[in-house]
Amino acid sequence: MKKQRLVILGGGESGVGTALLGKEKGYDVFVSDKGKIKEKYKEVLIHNEIEWEDEKHTESKILNANIVMKSPGIPDKVPLVKQIHEQGITVVSEIEFASRFTNATVIGITGSNGKTTTATLTHHLLKQELNVGLAGNIGDSFAKQILDKDYDNYVLEISSFQLDDITDFRPHIAVITNITPDHLDRYDYQFENYIVSKFRIAMNQTKEDYLIYDADDEVIVNHLKKYPVQSTLLPFSLEKPIENGVYLDKENIKITINNNQIIMPTSNIKLEGKHNVKNAMAASAVAHLLKIRKQTIRESLENFQGVEHRLEQVLKINKVQYINDSKATNVNATYYALESMDAPTVWIVGGVDKGNNYEELFSFVNEKVKAIICLGADNEKLVKTFGNMVDVIVETQYMDEAVKIAYKVADAGDNVLLSPACASFDLFENYEDRGRQFKNAVRNL
């Protein structure tokens, strides 16, 4: 019996995790990365005697695969990926590959915004009483956790790119936090394609499974009307009562599942902002479904600290609050950030614009923003869009300069908010790098 050949495109966290799991399950494994593989990952591959290459793709070693796992960062339009598809070779994401080797209960969380906070919060609620891992777009790779720990439950944060390459993946509980235009450069600038991609999270679900979603999000509601899913629906809403699901009644979150109701006061939730009430609703619904005690859910909501780079309060200097929201890589995320500002704000914005429409921010900018600092390689669109709305608009390509300018412009009682509304790849390695540079610059003031 010849071994099945597993080729992995991309030698990052998910690629190396898949390689280790694949080897353990008896595949002939080869890892290929067009860029440089980080030293820490090279060492793992060498130590485990897994064949690899970087800074090139050798076609002869790739096109003889039985199955290809490609990193979510590689678009389908790449010629090599097209060739792989033309040869009829199966292409899967790490989520698809890894899920074949576990019997765990899987909670899959997707959405344009709030998925990291919701996934982290859900994990925080569940881990008090269950054996549960957190993986996907976050932390250690899903494949590697299955190999090392194989938890009974997993909370997975899943991007649309990871969902594009699933075939049989079926989470017992799926969550869609919201859907707003994002990554349209990967979806032929068709919002509909991106919506369909997000809904793949429910495509293999049956009526024994659950789909938790935002009933106030017209995009989701309309898509469900047109394309019903098999799963049991559990909507959540801030605006209207919900019979089977979650809603806000004055200051209380009411969760009703199969006529079993629990009530959670929102007054002590650590996370601020309306969008975080929604994240708490989704996470609490998962916890209630998995029989976590009411008391545990309540205490966990009250002591959850939030996620790094997401409206993270860094320091107060001369009565000015510096806030790191580097994870806001699209306009909708920045919408939530500006919405939650309760003082005049110096706003640091910019990066790689993915076809952004900034209109929904205009009312907040007019009302709350006193100065704008554009931090990007190309700021032309931002200056054009916001130039007439604020008295001060400055351009820079350096984080420490952006923070110094903010320090000069801000008065006691103001906020300085890094909420870029764009991807970070022009000046930074990723949004974490951008957020860390911001925090370091603030600490060095």
From TrEMBL:
It catalyses: UDP-N-acetyl-alpha-D-muramoyl-L-alanine + D-glutamate + ATP = UDP-N-acetyl-alpha-D-muramoyl-L-alanyl-D-glutamate + ADP + phosphate + H(+). Keywords: ATP-binding, Cell cycle, Cell division, Cell shape, Cell wall biogenesis/degradation, Cytoplasm, Ligase, Nucleotide-binding, Peptidoglycan synthesis. One of its GO terms (cellular component) is cytoplasm. This is UDP-N-acetylmuramoylalanine--D-glutamate ligase. ATP binds at residues 111-117. Pathway: Cell wall biogenesis; peptidoglycan biosynthesis. It is an enzyme of class 6 (ligase). The gene is murD. It comes from the Bacteria. Its EC number is 6.3.2.9. SUPFAM superfamilies: MurCD N-terminal domain, MurD-like peptide ligases, catalytic domain, MurD-like peptide ligases, peptide-binding domain. The lineage of its organism: Bacteria, Pseudomonadati, Bacteroidota, Flavobacteriia, Flavobacteriales.
